[in-house]
């Protein structure tokens, strides 16, 4: 599947503007991590862009989130590694994250939310005004952006990435698409 097809698929299944932006943010982070780890950027991008494909459909049944989406992608013939990463990104299922892609998607998902929340409280309200230390300080404040699960973000260590480096890579990737994200 090409990116334009994946983008259409995401937009067909996700109507909420902020959720679309979230998928774009995760896609950007996954692309940056693919390059960092010398992996296939296109495949990692697809995992990021499509990871929440079933989010609106499963909003009343969070226990089904990621399972329906992964099944949908599998039926479309998407590569099993991508399907497995999408399926395992919802920690509620406690599925093993066996590939680097799955580990990256799991950790990146909540970090993008923390970075967006950090931008929104910054006086300039812009991603480009943030630096790694600003986000790291927000990470350390457990009362801030409570939905951004710190334990999941800290799972970056499963990729042999230090938290500070993970935040730096993720922030940079999101800054590169700040116009698309409206921040």
Describe this structure in words.
This protein has 183 residues and is an all-alpha fold. 61% of the residues lie in helices and 0% in strands. The protein has a single domain, classed as Orthogonal Bundle (Hypothetical protein af1432). It has ten helices and no strands. 44% of the residues are buried.
- What's the β-strand tally? 0
At CATH level 2, the architecture is Orthogonal Bundle
- Distance between the terminal alpha carbons, to the nearest Å? 28 Å
Contiguous low-pLDDT stretches (5 residues minimum) are none
Order of helices and strands: HHHHHHHHHH
**Number of helical stretches of at least 4 residues:** 10
Class of secondary structure makeup: mainly alpha
For this structure, what is the CATH class?
Answer: Mainly Alpha
Helical amount = 55-70%
Q: How is the main sheet built?
A: none
The gyration radius over C-alpha positions equals 15 Å
What is the CATH topology classification name? Hypothetical protein af1432
Roughly what fraction of the amino acids lie in strands? under 5%
Shape estimate: globular
Number of domains: 1
Mean pLDDT: 96
